[in-house]
Design brief:
With 619 residues, this protein is mainly alpha-helical. Helices cover 53% and strands 5% of the residues. The longest helix is centred in the last third of the chain and has 28 residues.
């Protein structure tokens, strides 16, 4: 595949880490997470918020049964309409009326896969008073579900029958305005925002929470399955977590190590010198705001001695957010200069991790061959970008991508002085490609499609601008240079080429089984013993004895060389394990099947989100 080195670096990282995480860190949104790390270090308890898998109800009878369980074991009830507020429990008549109230808002003939309702759980530390659980949860629910953007109907039931008091929210997914609720990373309803809201609302009642993830707290493995929790309780033992294995384990350990680095950086920040650095950054950010017409400065920004370190960081984060908002309101061609100024401010605080674990990019050189790299741009030749024939070639390279040539030119005239700014601009290009083609960058296939379109555009830009001597090098990986020069039309997508390549190298029997599993066929993938043995041979052919043993123990990543997609590897491993009586009912086989169920559930939720958008059910 023809590659531009800078685009390849950024989009490869997006593939590994996910669009939301990469985009957020590039925008400098890591300060909020660091505040939560500080709270965790102080010993605050984790805020627990989750949507109950399979908790959505599809009919009035299902909803009535669920409400019957939740509202007859409760100690406090909160009703979005106010009718049932103040009650401890509901009787059968009230449950029936509530069920009818919810059902009136359901659309006839519309049957969402995840149900007409969503069941959410908010759990609090041992010792939290039931009244506080009620009020905190009510405030969180009101913050999200009773806004100018939408009014959703819900019921809250507080339970105190376990050590950790908790609140159940049953939400009618259809709002008064017709919006359909779902949880998504880039949506206004997302897990992180709910947990942060829990932290903020709990603080008002003296309940100290923090919103870190398990990995941030050094927890390596996944939590145990529900059935394991009950089994452990029955056997009076500790529940066993679900172990991470292979590459998943390596990534987890690396992330924990990086979080340790962040904690060390936070410790450094608490020094007086670091506070001075932040004060200076606040002043610089204020200057930048003033240039944008948003803030009138009244002298220097001084830090009072009584200001806490956390308060100072909050001021800095708020100031950065305001600068980013100001930049977003500017015409696109004016943004690069301001983005570079903000980047320079953040680079001065690189040792304080303003971009999280990617703060190192603030001190790294930009790429050697990137279109936006200051190191690759011949500033004496920038005037050529205004020549009609050069501009026409740029327009041709960007045609259909959603990326404006005037923006590319403005960025080149500004130049990215470090890897962080270069990656930020490339990530923005990726977002524009996705928007132009209606792609969801949280979905792997869509991300790959957008990645290839962006790569083709930057490859052609690099060659065009290198020939016109604006760039010193074109950034194209040399192994494919000849192919690029002979394929000027750039009509064949890299994905198509990759599929052809996979089609010629993947064993036919393995491909057949994967197609069978993807289709969700209920029949067995083998018709006889010969076919089963042929499949096992196909899987084992590329593995050594140690890898085969690891596969039998459930390590699906030994198939990485044969199968690139994680879900496909799980499918292949499941069929392999189930094809042998010795492993068919093993713990490894069960773990693989459970992960398949989890991943298929996430895909189903993504499909529902997209499908409901198509039908106009969300906006």
């Amino acid at each position: 595949m023809r590659l531009n080195d800078a685009v390849h670096d950024v989009t490869g990282e997006v593939f590994r880490e996910g669009w939301s995480r990469i985009r957020g860190s590039m925008q400098g949104l890591h300060v909020a997470k660091q505040r939560q790390l500080i709270r965790a270090a102080a010993g605050h308890r984790a805020a627990v918020f989750k949507a109950i898998r399979g908790g959505g109800t599809h009919s009035k009878s299902e909803l009535s049964n669920q409400l019957g369980y939740l509202t007859t074991k409760s100690t406090h009830i909160v009703d979005s309409s106010g009718f049932l507020d103040g009650k401890a429990k509901l009787d059968n008549k009230e449950i029936k009326e509530l069920t009818e109230r919810f059902a009136k808002r359901w659309s006839a003939g519309f049957k969402p896969k995840l149900g007409q309702t969503t069941h959410m759980l908010l759990s609090y530390p041992i010792g939290t008073r039931g009244e506080d659980v009620r009020d905190i949860t009510a405030n969180v629910a009101e913050r999200f579900f009773q806004t100018d953007e939408g009014h959703f109907d819900y019921i809250i039931a507080v339970h105190e029958d376990r050590a950790h008091p908790h609140a159940h929210i049953v939400l009618n997914r259809r709002s008064q305005e017709g919006e359909f609720f779902f949880l998504g990373r880039d949506h206004r309803f997302n897990y992180d925002d709910f947990r942060l809201a829990m932290v903020e609302e709990a603080e008002k009642y003296g309940v100290r929470l923090e919103a870190t993830r398990r990995l941030d707290r050094g927890v390596v493995h996944y939590p145990p399955r529900t059935r394991e929790v009950y089994a452990a309780k029955e056997e009076d033992r500790a529940a066993e977590p679900r172990p991470r294995v292979g590459a998943d384990l390596e990534r987890a350990l690396a992330e924990i190590a990086n979080t340790r680095t962040v904690f060390h950086a936070l410790a450094t920040e608490a020094s007086r010198e670091a506070r001075d650095d932040i004060s200076h950054a606040l002043f610089r950010a204020g200057e930048l705001l003033a240039q944008g017409g948003k803030l009138n400065l009244q002298g220097d920004v001084y830090m009072a001695e009584e200001q806490s370190f956390d308060e100072l960081r909050t001021r800095y984060a708020d100031q950065v957010a305001r600068v980013q908002g100001m930049i977003a309101e500017k015409p696109e061609t004016e943004r690069p200069r301001l983005e570079r100024s903000l980047n320079e401010i953040q680079a001065r605080l690189a040792h304080m991790q303003p971009l999280g674990l990617r703060s190192v990019t603030l001190t790294e050189r930009p790429s050697d061959g990137g279109v936006y790299s200051e190191a690759n741009i011949d500033r004496d030749q920038l005037v050529r970008l205004q020549e009609p024939d050069v501009r026409a070639q740029i327009d041709t390279a960007l045609r259909g991508t959603g990326i404006r040539s005037s923006v590319v030119i403005a960025r080149m005239e500004t130049g990215a002085q470090n890897a962080a700014l270069e990656r930020q601009w490339i990530a923005d290009d990726l977002a524009r490609v996705a928007e132009a083609d209606g792609l969801n960058l949280e979905r792997r296939d869509d991300l790959e499609t957008a990645r290839e379109a962006l790569n083709r555009a930057h490859v052609q830009l690099g060659i065009t601008l290198e020939r016109n001597e604006v760039l010193r090098v074109d950034g194209v990986i040399d192994a494919e240079r000849d192919a690029l020069l002979t394929d000027r039309a750039v009509s064949e997508t890299a994905r198509g080429a990759a599929e052809v390549d996979r089609g010629t190298t993947l064993d036919p029997e393995l491909r057949r089984v994967l197609d069978h599993e993807r289709a969700g066929e209920m029949t067995a993938p083998f018709v006889d013993l010969e076919q089963r043995l042929a499949y096992r041979e196909a899987v084992e052919r590329e593995l050594d004895a140690e890898q085969i043993e690891r596969l039998r123990d459930g390590d699906v990543d030994v198939l990485r060389e044969q199968v690139s997609d994680r879900l496909d590897r799980l499918y292949a491993a499941k069929v392999y394990l189930q094809s042998d009586e010795a492993t068919a009912n093993s713990e490894a086989a069960r773990a693989v099947v459970e992960e398949i169920a989890d991943r298929e559930y996430e895909l189903q939720r993504a499909d529902l989100t997209d499908g409901e958008r198509v039908r106009g059910e969300t906006h």
